[in-house]
Design a protein that fits this description.
Blueprint lengths: L20 H8 L4 H18 L3 E7 L9 H9 L5 E4 L3 H9 L4 E3 L6 H6 L2 E4 L2 E4 H17 L3 E3 L1 H15 L4 H8 L3 E2 L7 H11 L4 E3 L1 H14 L2 E7 L2 H20 L11 E6 L28 E5 L2 H15 L10 H8 L2
Parallel strand pairs: 1-2, 1-9, 2-7, 6-8, 9-10, 10-11
Antiparallel strand pairs: 3-5, 4-5
Helix pairs in contact: 1-2, 1-12, 2-12, 3-8, 4-6, 6-9, 7-8, 10-11
Length: 344
């Protein structure tokens, strides 16, 4: 009797027993639905971490720092699991608040927000923050901006200098860790955060600072061109995800200008953790398979998406990695590439 081509890979039902997180995720990869997808994301991440040829980009969106996730990303930077970070401005500013010694507080979405306003409390769904503490964080960024020479910077240059500033103050944030590890941090929409408010305050005091987003993108593409191959980890979507995707597209267009046709350098490995869905047409929910049509992700490379809250997935994935991979070395220190080109 001819073998049924659809009935080859058996599903393995979960059994309750003592096991570590990595074993749990591997077992979940043999089940179904988003449990399987979370396990598959973990398996792809292990493959990219084991590949010494790839440069790993992380796209970090959402409100991860206020949710208590920033130390996980910082750990991944410290241990060499992230070579390039592309983040929203919110994530790389709101972690500084806690790194300064202030706190976020467990709250509730079922609250009188007008009363919160009276008490100068900011709400992030079920998390509270003191508006006064938030302003101190913004004031610290403004202090740094005013210490810079007037001129034009990419966000990678700006944030590298800021990491050094924070290191000198003993404030150990994600940007600080990136400074120590030589990880470039790009933030294509940096002004849409506490950085924007701080820059505005500094501007009104006469400080002239320009963040050049074209220079930013050019540097990001140069990092990819310098790399043998690339891999991506997307936490959420938005501007960080699209910017990293466009790095692959840019290399195709640049090759065509040099006279090379049908040239593609898609990301070899790709994973994403998202709660967005593809049927609305937005980039945040767009599938990694759809990205193949643009030359953004490899049609043959390992890829996996899990539709789950990142505050559930990221701790599980990171703890499993910590169990099985002590660190990823040597670190690439890609910031040196950018700074050497600039003579800094």
């Amino acid at each position: 009797m001819e073998e049924n081509p659809y009935l080859k890979d058996k599903l393995t039902s979960m059994e309750v027993r003592r096991r570590n997180v990595s074993e749990l995720l591997r077992a979940m990869a043999e089940t179904a639905y988003q449990g399987r997808k979370l396990g598959e994301v973990y398996e792809v991440m292990l493959k990219m971490f084991e590949d010494p040829q790839v440069t790993i980009f992380m796209g970090l969106a959402g409100s991860m720092s206020t949710a208590g996730m920033w130390k996980i990303v910082k750990w991944m930077i410290d241990e060499g699991f992230i070579d390039v970070l592309v983040s929203t401005g919110a994530n790389i500013s709101e972690d500084i608040l806690e790194a300064m010694g202030f706190s976020y507080y467990k709250g509730s979405p079922n609250v009188d927000d007008e009363d919160l306003l009276k008490h100068m409390v900011d709400r992030f769904y079920d998390v509270y923050a003191s508006e006064l503490d938030y302003r101190k964080m913004e004031a610290l960024i403004a202090e740094f901006i005013k210490s810079l020479e007037d001129g034009t910077y990419s966000t990678a240059e700006f944030l590298h200098l800021f990491g050094g500033f924070l290191e000198g103050r003993g404030i150990d944030s994600m940007v600080t860790a990136a400074y120590r590890s030589g990880v470039p941090v790009f933030s294509p929409a940096l002004v849409d955060s506490g950085y924007g408010m701080a820059a505005l305050l500094a501007l009104r005091e006469g400080k002239r600072l320009i963040l050049d987003m074209v220079k930013d993108f050019n540097q990001l593409v140069k990092v990819a061109e310098y790399s043998h191959e690339t891999a991506v980890i997307y936490i959420g979507g938005g501007v960080p995800k699209d910017t990293i995707n466009l790095v692959a597209v840019a290399q195709t267009l640049l090759a065509e200008r040099r006279g090379t046709r049908s040239y593609y350098r898609p990301h070899k490995y790709s994973v994403q953790v998202t709660t967005d869905m593809p049927q609305w047409g937005g980039l945040s929910g767009a599938t990694l398979d759809e990205a193949v049509s643009w030359g953004k992700t490899s049609s043959r490379g390992p890829k996996a998406t899990v539709h789950v809250d990142a505050t559930i997935a990221l701790p599980l994935l990171a703890h499993a990695v910590a169990e099985e991979v002590s660190s990823r070395r040597p670190k690439k220190r890609l910031i040196n590439l950018l700074l050497s080109e600039l003579g800094k």
